[in-house]
Write a structure and sequence with these properties.
The protein is an alpha/beta fold. It has a single domain, classed as 4-Layer Sandwich (Metallo-beta-lactamase, Chain A). Helix content is about 20%, strand content about 25%. The strands form two sheets. The protein has a seven-stranded mixed β-sheet.
Length: about 280
């Protein structure tokens, strides 16, 4: 399983181009290694998680083509995870290889699917919509995907998801845009795995924020708490790659400073272009 991070920032990117805070100034001075686009990951050359406004920039920055993508998982409807004009890049009028373009299965909650199907960019010839249900395994293009409810606030009546992927004897848990996960969810997750997860990506939006006013993301300290809890429950073990991901500019300094903290706990700091191959 190959996991390539196309973007690793929260909604506003990092640095925020309209911000002059200390972290944004430091990131600009640090240069490209600290520049972050909105979060998205590319798995095994045929699966994407999230479809925000920087998907084109992320792919070009990583020097990859998304032509072979057959599966798209969307966590929720916030605009840094669902940017509907992206579907336009796959439409006949904008795509010279449209006839050879694979059909893409989109797995998401009902709110997201409704937004897509009602969009002017929806092309039913090349797009298959699949509704995600909590803890319900679904086989999509040779990958088993299990949606897990996220602790996140979106539209009224919308259930955001994080995802567990299993393929070729390997497993990948993508848990971003969520606050600390409830033990009941961890219990269900444990029942769905045969061995400890190989890669666990954990939301790190709130970074070094001291007063948490928005309990739908993780602080840096909560990332470590979540890692320890998953370790206690044997969902992960010492061989699991735990990755901090989805950084907001306000409470997160540039990459090197983040690494100084997370390295002490054996947590990898995601950055745009990071490739994990297991």
């Amino acid at each position: 399983m190959r996991v390539l991070f196309l973007g690793t920032a929260a909604y506003e990117g990092h640095p925020n181009v309209f911000c002059d805070c200390e972290n944004c100034r430091k990131a600009r001075l640090a240069g490209n290694e600290s520049f972050r686009l909105t979060a998205s990951v590319y798995v095994d050359d045929d699966l994407l998680i999230d479809f925000g406004p920087n998907i084109m920039s992320g792919a070009q920055k990583a020097e990859v083509s998304l032509f072979d993508v057959k599966t798209l998982l969307i966590t929720h409807s916030h605009s840094d995870h669902l940017y509907l004009p992206n579907f336009g890049y796959r439409m006949n009028r904008y795509n010279a290889s449209y006839d050879r373009l694979p059909r893409m299965s989109v797995l998401a909650n009902s709110t997201v699917l409704s937004l897509i199907s009602n969009s002017v960019y929806f092309d039913p010839e090349k797009t298959v919509l699949l509704q995600a249900e909590p803890y319900e395994e679904i086989e999509v293009n040779d990958c088993t995907v299990i949606p897990v409810p996220a602790v996140h606030k979106v539209k009224e009546d919308e259930q955001p998801f994080i995802f567990l992927l299993k393929k070729g004897g390997k497993s990948f848990f993508y848990a971003t845009d969520t606050g600390p996960i409830e033990d009941s969810s961890f219990g269900r997750l444990k029942d769905l795995i045969d061995s400890p997860i190989d890669i666990a990506v954990v939301d790190s939006t709130l970074g070094f924020m001291k007063e948490v006013l928005f309990p739908y993301h993780h602080t840096a300290e909560q990332v470590i708490t979540t890692k320890n809890r998953m370790r206690e429950l044997k969902i992960i073990d010492d061989n699991t790659l735990v990755v901090a991901h989805h950084f907001s500019h306000y409470p997160n300094p540039p990459k090197k400073e983040l690494e100084e903290f997370y390295n002490r706990y054996k947590v990898v700091v995601a950055h745009d272009g990071l490739l994990l191959d297991i």
